[in-house]
Amino acid sequence: GNYKIDYNKYLGAYQDVYDVTFDTTGGQVIPIYHTETVKVYDTIDRISISPTKRKFTYLNIPVLFGYGNEGRWFGWYVKAGPSLSVLIHENIPDINLTDSQNKILDVENELPGRLKTNWQFVFTGGVSYKLGNSLSFTLEPVFRYYINSAYEQSNVTLKTPYSIGIRAGFVLGF
Fold first, then answer.
1. Are 107 and 3 in contact (CB under 8 A)?
2. What does each C-alpha distance from 116 to 51, 59, 113, 150, 157 come to in angstroms?
3. Following DSSP, what letter does each residue of 21-49 receive, concatenated?
4. Alpha carbon of 127 to those of 62, 123, 133, 141, 144: distances in Å?
5. How far apart are CA 169 and CA 131, in angstroms?
């Protein structure tokens, strides 16, 4: 994702004398300068596109129904059903400018927000190969159709997304 940042570049600082008082102790007049640090910024507005790595963690709760057949060495199965995804953690980092002393005028977040929950329909099938009495290797292609998008629809128009993937792993039976 990206942030579009309008800012004024930091040019430096100086000590501004806002008051002068005099101390006359000891019979001598000693000036005392009261100062404050004033930061100086460029008058030209600048624009920066700052990439950000947003991370979202969802808990998937599938309810799948299926059928399969297990042979002596090979097996197969198909499963389908709904799956609920619940957002359990999000990490949206702060704005990242190279010089942190710049005066930020405006920040435009170019990505929509995420929904807390969304539904998908999952269809999967797989084949397995027995490696032993209780251990088998499984290869499983997965098709996932999102019933509603994971993004908020108020500021973006998206087609209903889908995903295609493949999973592989070892299955240990008890």
1. yes
2. 23, 11, 10, 8, 18
3. EEE-GGGS-EEEEEEEEEEEEEEEEEEEE
4. 20, 14, 17, 9, 18
5. 12
Scan for tokens 């995420």, then name that residue: 114
- In tens, the pLDDT along 62-88 reads 999 999 998 889 999 999 999 999 999
DSSP for 126-166? EEEEESSSSEEEEEEEEEEEESS-SB-SSS---PPPEEEEE
d(CA 89, CA 58): 7
3-class secondary structure per residue, 65-85: EEEEEECCCEEEEEEEEEEEE
Other CB atoms within a 10 A radius of the CB of residue 41 amount to: 15
Cα–Cα distance between 136 and 127 in angstroms, integer? 10
Residues 10-68: pLDDT tens digits? 888 889 999 999 888 777 888 889 999 988 888 777 776 666 677 889 999 999 999 99
All residues at 6 or more sequence positions from 109 whose CB lies less than 8 Å from its CB, including other chains: 1, 3
